[in-house]
Every structure is written in structure tokens, then in C-alpha cells.
């Protein structure tokens, strides 16, 4: 333009199709909303069908859809991919956000909860990645996968041994999958959140109260105060990193796990 202005600018994810697992609440929903703002077509995949309907309020229904998905079920994962392809042609971005949490001292960890956490956080994440990556290879247009790890995957913690192990596995899988899939033009990276103020943290706080003998609310307050930034994270704090890793701005970023944690962990 003659006045030196650049005029309208398309969003960084304009006309990309992004699938967000566990997308009906918390960080997943914050990412879905930001992706829509950046021009993406958004697919909210979640095990909670009622939450999906609520989450889709405010989205352009021509450019957004919801689908029930239990990532422990490989048949359901395949069906989800086909459903998205039928609606939006191809998947460009996968955000592997679905996860569960558990807490217990090592001597009290039971097999059922151990298997539940690994089934969702590791097996479900991997086979969702695999199914989407296969579709991306078939479509021959590359793609992006973003796995949600955690600061818990960077270190051990006494009451969350199983959860820490699952998130360490996510970081490792991110590296291996990235090195394998980049030959197909598929970039794989991860985000490692710190402590995040979501409804789940009220459940976590209650567990800490049980195992550490604390009043309800105290652990959550202390954890927030201990963050160098001075507060717990909020779901919106992760949307910018998710846009960056999904966009062309990060074309040379491969196999990395980006810490977004207010300064809790440095690596």
C-alpha cells in the first residue's frame, strides 16, 4: 500500500486443520480457541461428549467440529481420523493433549492406576500420533505433531512416580518420532507445562492434602508462590507456544520439548 501499511494479514494457521485431543477443557480448549483465531479449522476430540458440546460454543461451526474419542481405543482413533478427513480433507496439525493424573506414595501405587496412566498418557498418545502420521504421509503434505509433556517428565517426584514416568516417556517418544517422521515432512515437538491452574488442580490439591496432611488449598497456594514468575500457569499461557510450534515460524524446530512453566525448570 502507498501509505506503507501492510494491509490484512492471514492467521499463522490459515486453513490448516488441527486436531486437539482432550480439547474440551483446560489447555486443550485454550489452544483450540487460539488456533481458530489464527485461521485454522479445529477438531475438538475428547472422551467427554457433553463437554465437547459446551466447548464448541462460540466456534464457527463451518470450521469446527467435535468428536468423541477415547485414546485407549485404537479403533476409535482410526475412526476419528477418517471422520476428520471426510469433513476437512486432511489433518495438518495434531495436538496430543489428552492425559490423566494419579498420585500415591510408591508403596501404595496399584496396578490398575499404573496401567490407566500409561494407557492414556503414553500408549494413547503414541497410537494417536501413529494414526495421524500415517494419514499425513498418505496425504503427502507434511504436518505437525505437538505432544503435551510436563515438567514432571523432567524430574522425579515422590508422590507422582507413575505420572512422572509417563511424561518422561512422552519426551522420549517426541524425540524418537521426530527423528523418524521428519523424512516425511512431519515435525514433532512437545510442550512441557509447569503447574497449571485448571479444575484438575483442585483434585490434585485434595490428594496432597490427604498424603501430606495439609489443609485444602494450601498446597495449591504454595506451589503457585514457588513459581519464579509468581503464579501458576493459566491455560491461555500455552496457546502461543502451540501456535508457534504449529506454524511456519518453527520450521527448523524438530524433536524439542519447550518448557512453558514460568521459570520452574531450565534446560
From TrEMBL:
The residues covered by the Ketoreductase domain are 16-194
What the entry lists under SUPFAM superfamilies is as follows:
NAD(P)-binding Rossmann-fold domains
Coiled-coil blocks: none
Record protein name field: L-iditol 2-dehydrogenase
List the lineage, top down: Bacteria, Pseudomonadati, Pseudomonadota, Gammaproteobacteria, Oceanospirillales
Please name one Pfam family that this protein belongs to: adh_short_C2
Q: Which domain of life does the UniProt lineage start with?
A: Bacteria
SMART domains in the cross-refs:
PKS_KR (SM00822)
Which InterPro entries does the UniProt record give? KR_dom, NAD(P)-bd_dom_sf, SDR_fam
* Similarity comment: Belongs to the short-chain dehydrogenases/reductases (SDR) family.
What is the scientific name of the source organism?
Halomonas litopenaei
Amino acid at each position: 500500500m502507498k501509505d506503507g501499511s501492510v494491509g490484512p494479514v492471514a492467521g499463522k494457521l490459515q486453513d490448516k486443520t488441527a486436531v486437539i485431543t482432550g480439547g474440551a477443557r483446560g489447555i486443550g480448549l485454550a489452544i483450540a480457541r487460539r488456533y481458530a483465531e489464527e485461521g485454522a479449522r479445529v477438531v475438538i476430540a475428547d472422551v467427554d461428549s457433553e463437554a465437547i458440546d459446551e466447548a464448541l460454543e462460540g466456534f464457527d461451526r463451518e470450521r469446527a467440529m467435535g468428536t468423541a474419542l477415547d485414546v485407549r481405543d485404537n479403533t476409535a482413533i482410526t475412526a476419528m481420523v477418517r471422520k476428520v478427513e471426510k469433513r476437512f480433507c486432511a489433518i495438518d496439525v495434531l495436538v496430543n493433549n489428552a492425559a490423566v493424573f494419579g498420585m500415591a506414595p510408591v508403596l501404595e501405587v496399584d496396578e490398575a492406576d499404573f496401567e490407566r496412566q500409561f494407557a492414556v498418557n503414553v500408549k494413547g498418545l503414541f497410537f494417536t500420533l501413529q494414526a495421524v502420521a500415517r494419514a499425513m504421509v498418505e496425504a503427502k503434505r507434511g504436518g505437525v505433531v505437538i505432544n503435551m509433556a510436563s515438567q514432571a517428565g523432567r524430574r522425579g517426584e515422590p508422590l507422582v512416580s507413575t505420572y512422572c514416568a509417563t511424561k518422561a516417556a512422552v519426551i522420549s517418544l517426541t524425540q524418537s518420532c521426530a527423528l523418524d517422521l521428519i523424512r516425511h515432512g512431519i515435525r514433532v515437538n512437545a510442550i512441557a507445562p509447569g503447574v497449571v491452574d485448571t479444575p484438575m488442580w483442585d483434585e490434585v490439591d485434595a490428594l496432597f492434602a490427604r498424603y501430606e496432611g495439609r489443609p485444602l488449598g494450601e498446597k495449591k497456594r504454595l506451589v503457585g508462590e514457588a513459581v519464579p514468575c509468581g503464579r501458576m500457569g493459566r491455560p491461555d499461557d500455552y496457546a502461543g507456544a502451540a501456535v508457534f510450534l504449529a506454524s511456519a515460524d518453527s520450521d527448523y524446530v524438530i524433536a524439542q520439548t519447550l518448557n512453558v512453566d514460568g521459570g520452574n525448570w531450565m534446560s
